[in-house]
Amino acid sequence: MNVVAAPWIDLTGRLALVTGAASGIGKAAAEAIAAAGASVVLLDRDEAKVSAAADAIGADGHRASGRVLDVADAAQWRALGAEVAAEHGRLDILVNAAGIARFDRIDAEMTPTYREVFAVNVEGTIHGMATALDVMRPAGRGAIVNIASTAGLKGNPGMASYGASKAAVIHLTRSAARELNLAGLDVRVNAVLPGFVESGMGDQVIDRFSDTMGGRDRMLSAFTSGRPGRPREIADLILFLVSDRASFMSGSAVVIDRAQSA
């Protein structure tokens, strides 16, 4: 008798929101989650790019739509949450991948940069989790993945606000996971901590520091273990964490950097 093996990860029938989905890790995560069978709403400030990303997923035969969202705007999140609850009555997955980086140092001029970065990276993550939990609580289950960074584990000269914001995301992830577990809810919250990844943000870092570090190759050798990560490699970890295969994982901060910070 021929037996067809079930896919190792099957998200058929689930609904996912992915922020920062117009490019980079967010886009790769949306593609991976949709390919596993979920319906995915791609969220980003860039209307043209997020629509194109959603259309490309649809052209591959998967279910996706794009929507403009500024993650730092609490009112936009409330409107999105109300819409999801009214149209679907459920939410299974949230991936908070939206983020920005700015270059700064600890001095009197840092405060505006700090506020800009924290508005997106930290407040955006808080708004996303709060919105998702409002929809997930009635069912009592769901999965949230917050994208942090290995920059949140160590000093980050030249990008202090960015590193501090990612440290905050790690702490918020652990606090949310404990809070939900103590409340008896099966809503899992984990953080993914990539190292240096091929992306628009990575290109910004290369442009900023390659000259002072002796060129692109020398900079990459200092920042990576041989090469940058690829967005799809990070997305594969995200896919695992939002699936039932990770049903006993919550409150974890998972480093994915090919041993660079080991």
Question: Which descriptors apply to this entry?
Answer:
7-stranded parallel β-sheet; Rossmann fold; alpha/beta; 262 residues
Write the layout of secondary structure elements.
Blueprint: E1 15-19, H1 24-35, E2 39-44, H2 47-59, E3 64-68, H3 74-87, E4 93-96, H4 111-136, E5 141-147, H5 160-182, E6 186-194, H6 200-209, H7 216-223, H8 231-242, E7 253-256
Parallel strand pairs: 1-2, 1-4, 2-3, 4-5, 5-6, 6-7
Helix pairs in contact: 1-8, 3-4, 4-5
3D structure, described in words:
The protein is an alpha/beta fold and 262 residues long. The chain has one domain: Rossmann fold (3-Layer(aba) Sandwich), CATH 3.40.50. Helix content is 45%, strand content 15%. It contains eight helices and seven strands; from the N terminus they run βαβαβαβαβαβαααβ. β2, α2 and β3 form a beta-alpha-beta unit. α1 crosses α8, α3 packs parallel to α4 and α4 runs parallel beside α5. The longest helix is centred in the middle third of the chain and has 26 residues. 43% of the residues are buried.
